[in-house]
């Protein structure tokens, strides 16, 4: 179910911070038309941290409704409170999502046993499949390979994939050994997705795909076809864009980039996120031109 190029969608907000549903529906439609093989609403890039419960799962429902089963919907649903995470995954299922993307508890920094018990409680409370999201740079919590393997062995029908944003390529092999080669591993970093896939990954949950969905889809298709020469060419073409997405606090640069690709796209950001600074905008402009996106 989870392969290829899967954008972590930005959420269009008006200048007053309100959700612009019509723009989001158009954006979802464009992503599917351009070849994206799945969609992630309400992740980090979608500014889920600034949404309340009702708005969060309204956005998920809109995404599900617009996609109409054409691609799987992986709804952001994590929390550092296990009770809230259980409420979230139930809401994601009720909204029609195919899977829940769930970070380990952040800030409170549980032990590996605490991480295991957190996810065990979540999957025992709801049968919606879970994609783990391991991003220690944001959560200050790392799901170690042995803990991931333990979760997959205990709940093989529930813990189905990982979005690995550790940036450590050796994790792919370590997780294959712990979880088995059939366990779906997706890169959470665009810039290392080629190497990640060569080591056993099956796709990327991408920020860049918000801006260049067709190129990102073609990149993943080339890898799937073992056309590594073609994939490397696309990697070179997109590399500066991958880096430009993080030249200032995300999702500022990617929202700026989307506004260049889709004129009129709502680019409001909710505090504490800010519009990208001038050097970041210049880097995005240069990278868009180099990729031939604009």
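^ structure tokens above, recovered residues below v
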């Amino acid at each position: 179910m989870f392969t290829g190029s899967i954008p972590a969608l930005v959420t269009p907000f008006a200048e007053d911070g309100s959700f612009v549903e019509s723009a989001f529906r158009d954006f979802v439609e464009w992503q599917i038309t351009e070849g994206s093989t799945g969609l992630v609403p309400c992740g980090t890039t979608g500014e889920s941290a600034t949404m309340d419960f009702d708005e969060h799962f309204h956005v998920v429902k809109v995404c599900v409704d617009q996609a109409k089963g054409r691609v799987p919907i992986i709804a952001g649903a994590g929390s550092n409170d296990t009770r809230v995470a259980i409420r979230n995954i139930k809401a994601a299922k009720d909204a029609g999502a195919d899977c829940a993307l769930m970070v380990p508890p952040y800030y409170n920094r549980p032990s590996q046993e605490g991480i295991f018990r957190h996810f065990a409680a979540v999957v025992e409370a709801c049968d919606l499949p879970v994609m783990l999201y391991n991003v220690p740079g944001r959560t200050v919590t790392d799901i170690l390979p042995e803990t991931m393997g333990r979760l997959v062995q205990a709940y093989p029908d529930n813990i189905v994939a990982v979005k690995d944003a550790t940036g450590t390529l050796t994790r792919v092999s370590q997780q294959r050994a712990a979880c088995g080669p059939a366990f779906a591993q997706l890169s959470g970093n665009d810039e290392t997705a080629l190497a990640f896939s060569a080591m056993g990954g099956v796709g990327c949950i991408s920020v860049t795909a918000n801006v260049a969905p067709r190129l990102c889809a073609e990149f993943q298709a080339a890898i799937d076809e073992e056309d590594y020469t073609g994939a490397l060419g696309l990697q070179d073409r997109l590399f500066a864009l991958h880096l430009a997405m993080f030249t200032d606090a995300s999702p500022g640069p990617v929202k700026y980039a989307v506004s260049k690709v889709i004129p009129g796209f709502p680019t409001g950001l909710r505090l504490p996120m800010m519009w990208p600074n001038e050097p970041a905008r210049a880097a995005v402009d240069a990278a868009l031109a180099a990729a031939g996106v604009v």
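The longest strand covers residues 159-164.
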